[in-house]
């Protein structure tokens, strides 16, 4: 089968020409059929002919007659037909269905959709299920109707426009203009470019700066408004929100006045209010004016109180004091303010969940602890994306703290001559100078007489025991400080910094595993029933109440606990009267978030032991451990033995 990279519109264009059975089709007819301009049709055909150059198929044109699909061989046309008829992935099909529903004034026949997308009814039913999950259940919660073989959206113009905007913006190419979803099917590129130019001009004139996602949303909202208004689909109900920024209102009115003249149309006061709100909510504060002394001039007292309470919570529960970091304070204030506004849009981060979760192991926990604050202040819990952006804030603040924290007192012990030790010193200092203070260059033989009591780390080129000092780590490296050495050194620094987050006298992992509730070789094929099994150990012993399990389920629904194979750590912030674990091993591994899981470790934690979660994450998910090595473990003894014999670093 020919592998063609064609847009939906181009494939529909080919299909339409194929149905003409050798008769010419005018550009006007094609433009009307595909709801685009004749110029767009000409551009598409030029691109198609370039793409089809090696297929034996071309689209020819004849003045006053139109376009004709021709092939040197009938088999070439047959192959092209097979290729163009399998043109959509599920995501593309779901977007296409949503697009059609937003534009249709009448219910859509499912048989027509099957023919249009060349799919079976079974495939279409799966697509409709995905449609519900992606575009119907989330905000703006548009109603979806199905009567026999017809489907439709509720006749709410504002909700339809929100979904149309999402369809275009979620596929916006920030590296090039003119590459939104459907490559401007429905919208003429010239119109969109004109709107983009005008928006940029008037936002600059009024000194309004917005994040990229909000600027793209604004551009598309105005373009969609223009096409819906000119096709007779105006907004008729006034929005209920009264939030507005006076400068934003003036800028929008002048912008829309200009567009009315240029596009020969009229935007009513109701239409304008939606754009007023979008710009008001998307406008960034001038960060140069923000500092500890000025925040009361720019933020509501409730936002300041929310931020102060959360920072104090972090300090009390995790012994992390972020209150003196002015840059962090200003940033998180702006973020919490943004979440409080009637409209807030987030740019999708094209990174797999597991990558982000691994990157922000500790930061995600601190960010997730904001959920009770979110529920009290906003009236809702944050979703995964909102938590992820909060984790970015926490990560930046912790990186700043690490640079300001005491450096590791380090000795280099090298068995080679002084020039080698001296070169190692500068190589290490250039890469890790913010975290390491090299206090001495020593030969290896002096290890038996040197006082290591005030040394945190020994970096050595000799593969032998250097010191038995309990507070001093030893790292074996090459004299050339290879990339692997640098990774090991960076990992050790991170581990040491994490240990500073632990509350003194936390129980060891070994003791917790020994004293845990154990359920070996569980036969259940799902993890929800195991959640209940493990949580019941805590509930029946009176350590926690049922809210513990409720929060576990809530968290799993927002972002899954499973982000690596074999072992999953599950927990809740609901306080326990005793710190303990409950553990289940499966007889047969189960599939969870694409991973094969053997062991589920659930933790109940006393308030005074809250930082234990950092320790458990650090030790159970240590990147020195290959999780697949534990994939066959089914008993308590095997599991404890595995972690007892796993050394995070060579000492």
Gross geometry: globular
Largest sheet: 4 strands, parallel
Question: What is Rg?
Answer: 31 Å
- Count the helices. How many? 25
Which structural class should the secondary elements be placed in?
A: alpha/beta
What does this structure look like?
By secondary structure, this protein is α/β, with parallel strands linked by helices. It contains 25 helices and 13 strands. The chain has helices at about 10-20, 25-35, 40-50, 75-85, 90-105, 110-115, 120-135, 155-170, 190-205, 210-230, 245-265, 270-280, 300-320, 325-340, 355-360, 360-370, 370-380, 385-405, 420-430, 485-500, 510-515, 530-540, 545-560, 610-620, 635-645, and strands at about 55-60, 65-70, 110, 145, 150-155, 410-415, 435-440, 455-460, 475, 515-520, 565-570, 580-590, 595-605. The chain starts with 7 loop residues before the first helix and ends in a 7-residue tail after the last helix.
């Amino acid at each position: 089968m020919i592998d063609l990279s064609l847009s939906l519109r181009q494939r529909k264009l080919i299909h339409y020409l194929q149905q003409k059975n050798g008769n010419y089709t005018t550009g006007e007819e094609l433009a009307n059929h595909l709801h685009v301009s004749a110029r767009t049709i000409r551009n598409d055909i030029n691109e198609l002919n370039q793409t089809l150059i090696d297929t034996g198929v071309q689209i020819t044109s004849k003045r006053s007659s139109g376009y004709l699909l021709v092939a040197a061989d009938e088999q070439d046309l047959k192959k092209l037909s097979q290729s163009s008829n399998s043109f959509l992935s599920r995501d593309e099909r779901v977007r296409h269905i949503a697009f059609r529903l937003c534009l249709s004034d009448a219910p859509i026949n499912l048989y027509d959709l099957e023919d249009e997308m060349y799919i079976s009814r079974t495939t279409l039913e799966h697509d409709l299920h995905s449609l519900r999950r992606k575009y119907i259940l989330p905000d703006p919660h548009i109603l979806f109707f199905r009567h026999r073989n017809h489907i439709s959206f509720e006749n709410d113009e504002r909700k339809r426009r929100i979904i149309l905007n999402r369809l275009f913006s979620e596929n916006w190419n920030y590296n090039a203009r003119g590459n939104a979803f459907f490559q401007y099917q429905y919208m003429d590129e010239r119109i969109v470019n004109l709107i983009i130019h005008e928006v940029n001009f008037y936002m600059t004139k009024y000194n309004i700066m917005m994040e990229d996602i909000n600027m793209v949303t604004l551009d598309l909202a105005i373009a969609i408004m223009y096409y819906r208004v000119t096709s007779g689909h105006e907004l008729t109900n006034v929005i209920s929100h009264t939030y507005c920024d006076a400068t934003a209102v003036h800028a929008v009115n002048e912008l829309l006045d200009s567009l009315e003249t240029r596009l020969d149309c009229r935007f009513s006061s109701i239409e304008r209010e939606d754009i007023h709100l979008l710009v008001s909510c998307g406008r960034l504060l001038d960060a140069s004016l923000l500092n500890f002394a000025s925040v009361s001039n720019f933020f509501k007292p409730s936002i300041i109180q929310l931020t102060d309470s959360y920072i104090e919570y972090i300090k009390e529960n995790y012994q992390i004091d972020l209150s003196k970091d002015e840059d962090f304070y200003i940033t998180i204030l702006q973020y919490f303010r943004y979440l409080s506004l009637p409209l807030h849009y987030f740019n999708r981060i094209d990174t797999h969940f597991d990558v982000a979760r691994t990157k922000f192991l500790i930061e995600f926990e601190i960010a997730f602890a904001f959920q009770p604050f979110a529920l009290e202040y906003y009236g809702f819990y944050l979703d995964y994306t909102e938590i992820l952006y909060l984790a970015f804030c926490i990560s930046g603040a912790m990186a700043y703290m690490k640079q300001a924290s005491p450096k590791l007192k380090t000795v280099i012990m090298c068995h080679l001559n002084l020039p080698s030790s001296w070169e190692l010193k500068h190589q290490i200092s250039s890469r890790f100078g913010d975290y390491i203070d090299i206090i001495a260059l020593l030969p290896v033989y002096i290890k038996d007489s040197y006082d290591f009591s005030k040394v945190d780390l020994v970096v050595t080129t000799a593969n032998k025991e250097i010191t038995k000092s309990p507070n001093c780590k030893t790292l074996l490296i090459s004299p050339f400080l290879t990339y692997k050495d640098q990774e090991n050194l960076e990992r050790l620094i991170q581990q040491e910094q994490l240990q500073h987050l632990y509350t003194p006298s936390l129980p060891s992992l070994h003791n917790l595993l020994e004293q845990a509730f154990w359920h070996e070789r569980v036969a259940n094929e799902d993890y929800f029933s195991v959640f209940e099994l493990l949580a019941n150990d805590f509930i029946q012993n009176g350590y926690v109440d049922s809210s513990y399990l409720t929060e576990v389920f809530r968290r799993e629904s927002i972002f899954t606990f499973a982000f690596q194979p074999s072992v999953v750590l599950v927990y809740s912030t609901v306080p326990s009267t005793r710190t303990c674990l409950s553990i289940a091993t499966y007889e047969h591994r189960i599939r969870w978030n694409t991973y094969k899981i053997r062991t589920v470790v659930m933790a109940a934690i006393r308030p005074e032991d809250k930082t234990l979660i950092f320790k458990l994450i650090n030790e159970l998910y240590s990147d020195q451990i290959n999780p697949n090595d534990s994939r066959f473990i089914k008993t308590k003894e095997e599991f404890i033995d595995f972690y007892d014999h796993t050394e995070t670093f060579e000492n």
